[in-house]
Design goal:
Radius of gyration: 24 Å
Shape: globular
Number of domains: 2
Number of strands: 21
Distance between the termini: 54 Å
Length: 607
């Protein structure tokens, strides 16, 4: 399918908008950064630890030796397990606090949940499994089911330990294994450990004063309580809210899907917003069987590569945009402009300047969409996103903006006070006014870029000599290839750490899993008890990565606070989008060349 460039305003006053962007950013920046959020404690922590989807079954503690333990059963853990299986490494377990495979798709079952980039790219292994999503943006229940299908099809579903929290990881120098301790009393001695903890695994709460005083119902969207709201995951008829006043804090990816459902059933709905999202239209057609029949072998890899270029890099001359949505609009429009000019030779600076102009025009189009759909002028203005594209996650919905035309829905803009001021026994205080609610729902996201111990939730991770990974990486990661680190033998990482950056998280995690499993399988073939990057190889890679890294600090410094820029921090140590400058394909070629060389250069192997 070929799509045309979108219609955007011809004339945009960029200097004025740049100043407007700066003003909107400055009024939202908080000095406490990540500290404005807190990990749940007390009764709130008990509620978060509980699994609303599946009862926890008692079991006896396990004591065993194993080749590989994979921490996580979301996409990172699933792809690691898939690649282990493909390499013939079968003596492994996934371990997860959830009750089944799925990760974010296990925990998140709020009404309206769907994939927010297209399923044909996001869902991995479609050609390998023969599965095809039912529509462009698949429903959460379908994605969750597919996660379980992969585990079952490739024979690792029955190996997992669920409802199990790993609390200690200690390297045993005598055994040459990792001693893995859990909250279920397990003692697992693993030769290799893959930490696939994910980026959307740990819900976070805004540190609102008085949150423990509120006497009504409170929950996070990642722990949706259908017992309270009525309805179910696949049939979100929230009938029990008919006489309830509800507040939902947040207007990000979760809220724009949940808010339309809440508005249909709640007596009154307060939508609390610090920074608006950009929300485009969301055509979501069912998958065309004729299109499926027309696909040639290798279609998904081709589509994923096209998505990467269209969303994060640049389309090549003559290359169509196969995705055709909000994620790819800027590069599609820019490619059309350059094609009309015969693809002039541009320096990198000239190219980025041209892309910036298209960015401003696209964002002006999105602001115009708000004014067209929201009747109340003040509400519409508050919902307009005044920032550059990719300052926040691009979203799409046909229902979100019209929701604010309902008489029972009220937008509470807290940009001036940088958030809710406090909670009381009866509700919340914003802009000096108390709003009484029966239920407070937090759509406040996850510990995406906070300190490592908060995100992983593992009390102790100790390598050689009892050194803590939290001390080792106190100032940020130090790795070889973004997947290993010196001093922590036989330990591997999946995540956004010093590597190539892909527009699809599943593609990123899958390629990391493939690389990690290559090292593990080679170590097993060679009879190596220990494999570890030398400090020299690690330091050389870090120097290379940092020399090649794209400096996004100026761009991110213009953005309002969000997890995309670590809540406005300057050069944060756990920045989410540290990208390898030559691009995703160049990074993958570098790793493939390293694997093809065959000598595991930079790794120390000991029998």
């Amino acid at each position: 399918m070929k799509c045309s460039p979108t219609q955007t305003p011809d004339h945009v006053d960029i200097p004025s908008l740049r100043e407007k962007y700066r003003h909107e950013r400055d009024k939202r920046i908080r000095t406490d950064g990540q500290k404005q959020y807190f990990r749940p404690t007390g009764q709130v922590a008990v509620n978060y630890a509980a699994d609303p989807h599946k009862p926890i079954q008692p079991r006896e503690p396990i004591s065993e030796e194993i080749d590989v333990i994979v921490l996580g059963a979301g996409w990172g853990g699933i792809m690691a397990a898939y690649h282990l299986t493909q390499a013939g490494v079968t003596n492994f377990r996934n371990v997860d606090t959830a009750g089944d495979f799925g990760g974010v798709w296990y925990w998140n079952r709020y009404p309206g949940i769907q994939c927010d980039n297209e399923s044909y790219c996001y869902l991995p292994l479609l050609e390998e499994t023969g599965f095809m999503p039912s529509k462009k943006f698949a429903d959460g229940w379908e994605i969750h089911g597919y996660c379980k299908t992969i585990a079952e099809n490739y024979g690792f579903a029955d190996k997992a330990l669920f409802h199990t929290l790993i609390n200690t990881l200690r390297w045993d120098e005598e055994l040459k294994r990792w001693r893995v301790g859990t909250n279920r009393g397990d003692d697992i001695r693993a030769r290799f450990v893959i930490l696939a903890c994910g980026v959307l695994n740990m819900p976070k709460l805004p540190g609102v004063s008085g949150i423990d005083k509120f006497k009504g119902k409170i929950f996070h969207t990642a722990r949706w309580d259908y017992g309270y709201t009525g309805g179910s995951y696949r049939d979100p008829v929230l009938s029990k809210l008919a006489n309830k006043r509800v507040g939902i804090l947040g207007t990000g990816a979760t809220a724009i899907q949940a808010v339309p459902h809440l508005s249909k059933y709640a007596k009154h709905l307060y939508v609390i917003q610090r920074t608006p999202s950009s929300v485009d239209e969301r055509p979501n057609p069912t998958t065309d069987p004729e299109w499926v029949q027309s696909l040639k072998q290798g279609w998904q890899k081709e589509r994923q590569a096209n998505f990467q270029r269209a969303a994060m890099e640049f389309l090549r001359p003559g290359e169509p945009d196969l995705i055709c949505d909000i994620w790819t609009e800027i590069n599609r429009n820019l490619a059309a402009e350059l094609a009309a000019e015969g693809w002039p030779q541009l320096t990198a600076q000239q190219f980025m300047a041209r892309r910036e102009r298209v960015d401003y025009r696209v964002m002006e189009r999105l602001r115009g969409r708000v004014g067209q759909l929201v009747k109340h002028e003040g509400t519409a203005e508050a919902l307009k996103p005044y920032y550059r594209f990719l300052c926040k996650r691009p979203l799409s919905s046909d229902e979100f903006y019209p929701t604010f035309n309902r008489s029972n829905v009220e937008l509470i803009d807290v940009s001036e006070t940088k958030g809710v001021e406090r909670m009381t026994e009866n509700g919340f205080v914003a802009n000096g006014k108390e709003y009484e609610v029966d239920c407070m729902i937090f759509a406040s996201g996850f510990e995406v870029t906070s300190d490592l111990n908060r995100r992983w939730g593992i009390d102790v991770v100790e390598g050689r000599g009892g050194r803590s990974i939290y001390d080792h990486w106190r100032d940020g990661p130090k790795t070889l290839h973004g997947t290993m680190t010196h001093g922590f033998p036989n330990q591997f990482y999946i995540g956004y750490i010093q590597g190539g950056l892909n527009a699809s998280v599943t593609e990123q995690f899958g390629k990391q899993g493939h690389h990690i499993v290559h090292v593990i399988s080679e170590a097993l073939k060679r009879g190596a008890a220990v494999v570890e990057p030398s400090k020299e190889a690690q330091d050389e890679y870090v120097r290379h990565f940092e020399a090649m890294e794209i400096d996004l600090s100026e761009f991110q410094g213009q953005c309002p606070p969000s997890y995309f820029n670590n809540e406005g921090e300057v050069r944060p140590k756990w920045a989410l989008f540290r990208a390898y400058g030559p691009g995703w394909e160049a990074f993958q070629k570098m790793l493939q060349d390293w694997r093809d060389q065959g000598d595991l250069k930079g790794l120390d192997l000991a029998r």
